[in-house]
Amino acid sequence: MRHMIRAEYRAPEAPEEEERPPRRAGDPVSWHMVRGEGAVAMCGKELAPDADTRPDDAWGTDLGAPFCHTCGALYLREVP
């Protein structure tokens, strides 16, 4: 099965009743692993389908943001 790393963008904190602002370049991100080209992380978090992606062999490298621990554990159980 093919995997891909997908970014999670954190919008600035806003009250729930207000619409969150769109993400901007430079917003902090974390990285999750998805199966195929999906938008649902292996940990279950829904990610933006247009979020930045990286190949799965970049897992654990310095992409400037933390990796999801749960996604990493599940990924390591699926790859040889």
Report on this model:
The chain is of the alpha+beta class and 80 residues long. It has a domain at 1-8 and 29-51 and 62-80. It is 12% helix and 21% strand. The chain is built from 1 helix and 3 strands; from the N terminus they run βββα. The chain has a 3-stranded antiparallel sheet.
For this entry, give a set of tags:
alpha+beta, globular, 80 residues
3D shape: globular
Weakly predicted, low-confidence segments: none
Name the assembly state.
single chain
Instruction: Count the beta strands.
Output: 3
End-to-end C-alpha gap: 11 Å
Q: Work out the radius of gyration.
A: 13 Å
Q: Compute the number of helices.
A: 1
Helix and strand composition category: alpha+beta
Which strand order does the major sheet show?
Answer: 2-1-3
Describe this structure in a few short sentences.
This protein has one helix and three strands, in the order βββα.
